[in-house]
Design goal:
single chain; alpha/beta; Transcription Regulator spoIIAA; five-stranded mixed beta sheet; 5 strands; 26% strand; globular
């Protein structure tokens, strides 16, 4: 899995590409650690290029959410493909971690 980062003000976007599974946990944790500073208030995980995530990835996202919440920071999941969104919803993760739908649909909702 490839992870790229973008930093804007106090917000970081981690863009994941490939499958997010147990075998990628260390690279995900290292990427998070690299951007987890006191200056960062929000971390968005861009899932637009992720085709699949397993239960280990779901657990890691939940643990990350709880850690950031304890530090008064925010984790967001963004732009999941339909299959990934379905996995997130089946695990009820969308009830705990804010889920941002596609950029197009969010712009349509704002203008409506």
């Amino acid at each position: 899995m490839k992870i790229t980062q973008e930093i804007h003000d106090k917000k970081v976007t981690l863009k994941l590409e490939g499958n997010f599974t147990y075998t990628q946990r260390k690279s995900f944790q290292e990427a998070l650690k690299a951007v987890s500073t006191d200056q960062i208030a929000e971390i968005m995980i861009d899932l637009s290029q992720v085709a699949f995530l397993d239960s280990a990835a779901l657990g890691l996202l939940m643990i990350t959410h709880r850690q950031l919440q304890a530090e008064k920071r925010t984790l967001l999941l963004a732009y999941p493909q339909p299959t990934v969104r379905q996995i997130i919803e089946l695990a009820n993760l969308h009830r705990t971690i804010p889920l941002i739908e596609s950029e197009v649909s969010s712009l349509v909702k704002k203008s409506a």
